[in-house]
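hey m, so remember when u said the tokens were messed up on ur end? i reran from scratch. heres the input so u can diff it against urs
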Amino acid sequence: MRKKVTIVGAGNVGATAAHWIAASGLADVVLVDIIPNVPMGKALDLQQALSIEGSDARVDGANDYAPTAGSDIVVITAGLPRKPGMSRDDLLRTNAGIVATATENAVKVSPDAILIIVTNPLDAMCEVARRTSGFPRERVLGMAGVLDSARFSTFIASELGVSVENVGAFVLGGHGDQMVPLPRYSTVAGIPITDLMDAATIDRLVKRTAQGGAEIVNLLGTGSAYYAPGRSITDMVAAILKDKKKILPCAAYLQGEYGIRDLFVGVPCKLGAGGLLEVVQIKLTADEDAALKKSAAAVKELVDALGAAV
């Protein structure tokens, strides 16, 4: 029997994730959205595409949570999209309510699911989902670092004119302007990029990575990125459903790791059948540690702003 993944939010990010997951045969997918008929229409279209792809995965759409019962993973992408000139902080209150409602409805019928939060501002929305679900930290994760690292990898490969397959990039911290790309741990064919680029070039790529989402928002004019986020979600889903024990940068609820407690912050995570299997601690320089703490402080401001609202 195939695994089951529910995706709450049938917009571009949710539908693209459903496409990747179903096309790869990872799991059956249920798309949920409050807009009448839209998730059903997208699910039917995708189901027909799968017959060309040769995947027997089933995709269903729904306006309620009954069809999602017994899901192994629930991905929450629903929320107000980011618009040009809008900061992630602007999204806080509205999206907190959306994520709380989605989490509450999903866990009623899938009490053993693992939650992957994608809605922005991501780190704070993970806290909303944790509070609402009452789940242990192993079963509440945020998708951010995979996407941010993919952006950094893309820019590195383009700058050096090499295959992206040779590039391994690592980004920690909160998802937003305070993220912490780590050039020392970013490599090309095992060679640190600090040996291949000058400091000015690295700094330029780091800044572009931090502004990666905003750059796409500004280019599109309406809406935000969805191809790379959808594929990033799928990477996390595959690591969990296949019990890969794969190390990916994810937002995890830290309990003293890296000197941070009671906050969701992007760190290297070993993912497998139980969700978060281990927070992998790497050695940071004083500057890197200070940047991570600064990023965590920005997350704390958002969480404090939530107060007792959820």
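this time it looks ok to me. The domain at 3-142 is CATH 3.40.50.720 (Rossmann fold). if urs says something different then somethings off w ur setup not the seq
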